[in-house]
Amino acid sequence: MPKVSVCIPTYNRSDYLQYSVNSVLSQTYSDFELIICDDGSTDNTAQIVKNFQNNRIKYIRHKNNIGRSKNMRSGFENATGEYFIKFDDDDALTPDFLTKTVAILDKNKDVDFVCTNHWVIDANSNRNEIATKENSDKWGKSKLKEGVIDDLIYQTFVLQSLQVGSTLFRYQALKKVDYMNPLADGCEDFDLLVRMAIAGKNGYFLPEFLMEYRFHGQQNSLKQNLHFLKAKKYCLETYNFAQQNIEQIRHKKLADINLCLGLRMIENNQNKEGRRLIREAEEVLGLSNRSLIGKTLSYLPYQINQFIFQTNKKIKPKDYADQVRSNSSNN
After folding, report:
1. Which sign does the torsion angle of CA 118, 119, 121, 126 carry?
2. Where does this protein have coiled-coil stretches (predicted)?
């Protein structure tokens, strides 16, 4: 049996999938299997996988779309390795990822997973050094030192500094927390790391850029945004931290998510539910310009509502992620 199982869940991204698969097959560490779990793709994904003709590849193709988390679980359940990593079909590993992370888990038997830093790449697979630095600073990775992470709950829940796609896990540690939760579909990566921290697992941070995380225009639709926010709301409602200060942060995060979700629902013409969520957020956050504007927009005709939302998106300053996405689409 292979030492490492690498899982790439995919759905209708055959163009990016080739890049992701090649990044695994190009690893300097060779004792691995690659599991591609296909959530009922309707493009030429099956042919792309067949073209690789590599006996280390296992291809699991679901006839129908079963959802992100269930698709990920199918890859996990078919894995045979002692170590396991899952990353998305539009991302990639650098050639030394497995060599360096396997060595840490082999040496540190009490460590359950090792997370690395990562590059930001655009739709054309170009690394963006400025966006990479801003991303590392934003999520606190630039402040993390190499070694075992002492404040794992704070890092995973408060700062959200770790990322599943750049993390190699012990398979049994994932099994003990039941891996991906289908009820958290859309926010399952965040949920997995938080649940591992709550369960008392040990994480190790390696501050080397050993993975590539891609920003592109397909990630930013209203439908995807709603799905993510609903999943994040579910996660925040299920946690119960022993530390009072973390619980207070949880309540604040939940209120922030309710406000964001309420605004997106109003944008999606779900005005009554949107207003309810905004009022719920105001009980914690108080009144704000965003909440007042959101409630006002919910009473306007849909066409005017949409014009204001779209105009705001155009004039809103773009952060590094938006800039990478827009630059990619313009090339």
Report:
1. negative
2. none
Q: How many CB atoms lie within 10 A of CB 104?
A: 18
Alpha-carbon gap, residue 210 to 135, rounded angstroms: 15
Locate CATH 3.90.550.10 in the chain. Answer: 4-218
In 3-state terms, what secondary structure has residue 322? helix
Q: What is the pLDDT of residue 271?
A: 97
Cβ(38)–Cβ(62) under 8 Å?
yes
For the record, the structure tokens of 69 come out as: 């988390």
CATH code for the domain defined by 4-218: 3.90.550.10
Q: Which residues contact 186 (CB under 8 A, 6 or more apart)?
A: 68, 224, 227, 228, 230, 231, 232
Alpha carbon 177 to its chain centroid, in Å, reads 18
Strands (E), the chain: 4-10, 32-38, 57-61, 83-86, 92-93, 113-121, 147-148, 167-170, 203-214
Average pLDDT, consecutive stretches of 10 residues, N- to C-terminus, the chain (331 residues): 97 95 97 97 94 94 92 96 97 98 98 98 94 95 96 97 97 96 93 97 98 81 90 97 96 98 96 97 96 96 92 84 72 50
75 phi and psi angles, rounded to 5 deg: -70, -40
Query: Which amino acid is residue 124, in one-letter code?
Result: N
**Residue 89 burial by Cβ neighbours in a 10 Å radius (0-12, 13-18, 19+):** buried
303, with CB counted inside 10 A (0-12, 13-18, 19+), is exposed
Both tokens of 3, joined, read 């030492």
Task: Give the pLDDT confidence score for residue 327 in this predicted structure.
Answer: 73
Q: Alpha-carbon distance 173 to 41, whole Å?
A: 30
Provide the whole-model pTM.
Answer: 0.94
pLDDT of residue 219: 57
